[in-house]
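anyone seen this seq b4? input:
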Amino acid sequence: MISLTVNGTRQDLDIEPETPLLWVLRDEIGLSGTKFGCGAGLCGACTVHVDGVATRACITPVEAVAGSEVTTIEGLSSDLGRKVQQAWLAQQVPQCGYCQPGMIMAATALLAESPRPSDADIDAAMTNLCRCGTYARIRRAIHAAAEA
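predicted toks r here
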């Protein structure tokens, strides 16, 4: 039995310890906002927060987060999370939208750690991939959320 808290709700799961957190969130708990992209932790579509740290859920075994607080895009309700989401809309970041939950989670973790990031800080922290190439909008949205 593995216990963790997801979006404020304790989850007690009878699951194989090496099951990737991504599949636990999607298949066992029913939270489909966290996306599968590459399966190798490279693209960032699966980014969630584990104890406030941006984490790639596709390569994180559920046993590694036992006892932790996991926040998914569905649970991102902090003031900072709302500011990032509003900036995303204002800057018209999403095109296809597939990578956006992971991008928003990564941006929120960045701003929690560095409330006034420089362009270099953003480039270093935002390693998620956007197939539509909206990186300039993403940068503008992060700056806008920081100013809000």
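The two ends are 42 Å apart (CA to CA). The mean pLDDT is 96. kinda curious what u guys think
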